[in-house]
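Quarterly update from the structural biology core.
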Amino acid sequence: DVQLQASGGGLVQSGGSLRLSCTASGFAFANAEMSWIRQAQGKGTEWVSTTYPGGNANYAEFVKGRFTISRDDTKNTLYLQMNSLRFEDTAVYYCAKRAPLGVGVDYEYWGQGTLVTVSS
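Predicted structure, tokenized:
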């Protein structure tokens, strides 16, 4: 079975930092495109960042320069280092495995989410 287990969320003051982790199992993590997506209360999901096999990454404009996505393929673990956090970064953060092209969905597996709360 595929499992994605996110952790590392919590309460932090504005300007602070957190590092999220997502441990994966049940698929070839090193070959997978992995993303972080967030959802603020009462709002839709919002793509944050994606990392590709080999380590290249893309970021949403609103996190560029503040967040860094990374992966440790030896540990099957995805990370999101979040610095200079803002109140508007408050959300549940999900890790997800991107689906192969042609499947019809963007993400085929999701983790359970970890809540990040930034106090102003």
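The chain has no helices and eleven strands.
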